Amino acid sequence: MLGVDDEEGGVSGIPRAYKSLLGASAAAFTARGVHHPFAWRPYGGRMAKKVDQIVDVAIVGAGIVGLGHALAAVDRGLSVVVIDRGSRQIGSSIRNFGHACISVQSGAAQVHADRSRQLWLRLRDEAGLWLREGGYVVARADDELAALGEFAARRPLQARVLDAAETAAASGADPAHVVGGAHLLDDLQVNPREALFQVTEYLRSRGVEFQFSTAVRTIREGRLHTTRGRIGADRIVVAVNYDVDQLFPDLGADYEVRRCGLDMTRVAIDGLRAPLAGPVLTGWSMLRYSGFATAPSLAGVRDRLHASHPGLAALDLNQMYTQLPDGTVIVGDTHYKDDVVTPFQQENAFDEMLAEAAVFFGVPRGAIRVVERWQGVYATAPQDFLIDEPIEGVHVVSVTTGIGMTTGLGLADRVMSEIYEPVGA
């Protein structure tokens, strides 16, 4: 077992930050802003126990935000361990559309999304991800087309207005209901069933250690205690999305973090007019993404959709579609917020979504065959991002809205940059 004082007088696995200080006193480490890996450190008036492992960065959570921090750390030459309580990832980062909605963000989300785009493209090349570029918005009413025109006028490098024929050909939508659309030039699509596992293997090949089926018991400055032992770390990142309340309940309460439950399904569509050239958004999507918010025509879109489809409005629908490499289409999604997500899904939500999909694609309802249903879940809060340091050297980071695949990699890179290359340092 590695210890803070090895019985034989030597310790293996020393992080990079410590190597230049071997043999130095604890005071010398403190002067360099680094904790001495071999010193006994008091907690609560008693001596800390020995650690089993020492790394530069320990990350709790192997979702896209956790993996983003691991990528940023290993890129900086740091030693990294990622801990996750599951035997593999099964959370928000795989229960999604695989759509990185880069083009339709604003503010900090746009900054993180733009950086995420660079990193996704890099991972395509280095980790062998299936990825395609570009997304589409289908306008099925004049006010939606007007709002898209206003959006594209502000962002000519990110969006291009399409005519009805171009839109229908790219989206597979029924031409009878399409008045136009937009091509979202910066959007990306990955396969959510594969991407996270491929990134995990890529990071493992670069020396990142993963400890799955491992729960965290306690977290303190410079160390954490797991069901497999104790880990000493210069920095600890907690990236557990909606489960922040399980490790830092007061922090979760302060940020008003709740869970957003989603109804989603994957279908096979007989008679689909054309393959989807990329992820497809609709007028309902325009009501959700902040990049559209300043379009003057958007208020009219909201009023019309809510008045004509109160049932869909009550489900808080985001009508969107992505097609996977096997030809099946992910259909979604509804939203509700609570402290816990009930395991009982309402069939009427699926009925409504599938009926709308039949109209959208211009096929009989019977031509849509459900392959899978599932319950998505992600963290939601009044702010889009939770970034805090409740204990010195312990960084809690979550995307607290439904844009984790869009912003997670960039957010993580920004956090690690501020830790290791702070402005003004």
Question: What is the average of the pLDDT values?
Answer: 90
Name the beta content range. 25-35%
Instruction: Extract low-pLDDT stretches.
Output: 1-48
Structural class: alpha+beta
3D shape: elongated
Number of helices: 14
Measured as a percent range, the helix fraction is 25-40%
What oligomerization state is this entry in?
A: single chain
Q: How far apart are the first and last residues' alpha carbons, in Å? A: 37 Å
* Biggest sheet features: 8 strands, mixed
Radius of gyration: 24 Å
User: Total number of β-strand segments?
Assistant: 20
Architecture overview:
The protein is 32% helix and 27% strand. The chain is α+β, with helices and mostly antiparallel strands and 425 residues long. The strands form 4 sheets. Strands 3, 4, 9, 10, 11, 12, 19 and 20 form an 8-stranded mixed beta sheet that branches. Strands 5, 6, 7, 8 and 14 form a 5-stranded mixed beta sheet that branches. Strands 13, 15, 16, 17 and 18 form a 5-stranded antiparallel beta sheet that branches. The longest helix is centred in the first third of the chain and has 21 residues, at 107-127. It is elongated, with a radius of gyration of 24 Å.
